[in-house]
Amino acid sequence: MNDILATDTDGHVLESNAMKARHACWWFVTFLITAFFLNVGAHAGQKDLQKLTVGYTPISGAAIPFFIAVEQKIFQKYGFEVAPVFMGGSPLINSAILAGEFPIGYTGGGAIISSRLAGSDLVAIGSPLPVLTIDGWARPEIKSIGDLKGKRVGVTRFGASSYFAGLSMLEFAGVKPNEVTFIQNGGVGESYAALLGGRVDVCMIGYPFGLRAKKEGFHLLFRPSDTEYGLFPTAVIGARESWLKDGKNRKFAIDFLRALNEGQQLARENAAVTKKALGKFTRTENDAELQGSFEFYKDAFSPTLRTVEKSMANALKFVEHPKAKGAHAKQFYDNSLVEEAMR
Question: What interhelical angle do 109-117 and 90-98 show, nearest 10?
């Protein structure tokens, strides 16, 4: 049946109720179709993301570039759905990589050297933090590093960057490692808790925990970044050479570095983004601690992810292994992936 067209007093055609209903129905159907395809596209994009578990350490400012890349979803921009897994110390991360639990880790350069000297094919493919930013905070009665003889030094784990920071502190003052007792605590927060609880006399920690130590009356005994030991691969990206030989895996690693580099630049320049990411991962709400951490680390993070040869050479000096003296720093890192990532 045809619609009967009505007109107004000026002769203009008025829509009938049936026509209005059909137009409304047409718009509704169009909306549903559009929503359907948008939803399908969104799900397709999600399915394209590659799931990637990344072991990392520590839960402190040293991992800010990684925290930012996760929190700001930068990894997703490059096709990754990253699941960050904290592991208390670089040696644990390296063991997990070698066991095939995940291909890439945010680890320490000193531990990479130790692992490679022991026969593994781990290599550093990037270095977000080539400065030793792990300080020694001591109880008030410890006036000098020499006072540590016979005392307890808290670190996260043997072979981790905090352990190498402790070794550099002792060497700086001529104290031998066997003249102190190193205590493994498992994490930076746990090392700080050990100092607070009197289980160690000095602990090797980074920010924001250093700021907390200062607030609680402990004093800064040693800051390696102010000494000849300052250049050090505190944080590196580790992977197996055998895994990187596959072209797909190499591209995978290069894209990972591209995402991390964006997080690195934000860590150097953007206080708000840095504080948000650091606050979430360290469960810190104190704005003074977060701002202080940003100020402390922003200049320590390198403008690029290239590994500095001198930093690896400094780490190599502290590795206790028969092959260490005959090794060269260049054996332990590969900057070619960073160079490709930056093109």
Answer: 50
User: Distance between CA 309 and CA 130 in Å, rounded?
Assistant: 10
Please state whether the peptide bond connecting residue 58 to the residue before it is cis, i.e. omega within 30 degrees of 0: yes
pTM over 0.85: no
What are the extents of the domains in the chain? 49-130+231-341, 135-226
Strand partners, 86: 56
Q: Residue 210 above 50 pLDDT?
A: yes
pLDDT tens digit sequence for 26-72? 544 444 454 444 444 444 444 589 999 999 999 999 999 999 999 99
In angstroms, the CA 170 to CA 253 distance is 37
Contact 132, 161 (CB under 8 A): yes
**How many CA within 13 A on the CB side of residue 203?**
31
Cβ atoms of 241 and 234 closer than 8 Å: no
Asked if 49-130+231-341 and 135-226 have one fold, the answer is yes
Q: How many CB atoms lie within 10 A of CB 331?
A: 14
Residues 277, 314: Cα–Cα separation, whole Å: 30
CATH number listed for the domain at residues 135-226? 3.40.190.10
Spatial distance between the Cα atoms of 34 and 210, rounded to a whole number of angstroms: 54
Q: How far is CA 42 from CA 38, 45, 49, 85, in A?
A: 6, 5, 11, 26
84 DSSP β-pair partners: 54
Decide the pairing of beta strands 50-56 and 13-14. unpaired
Superfamily of domain 49-130+231-341: Periplasmic binding protein-like II (3.40.190.10)
Q: Is the dihedral of CA 107, 111, 116, 118 positive or negative?
A: negative
Arithmetic mean of pLDDT, 295-308: 95
pLDDT digits (tens, 9 = 90+) for 262-287: 999 999 999 999 999 999 999 999 99
pLDDT beyond 70 at 6? no
H/E stretch holding 340: helix 336-341
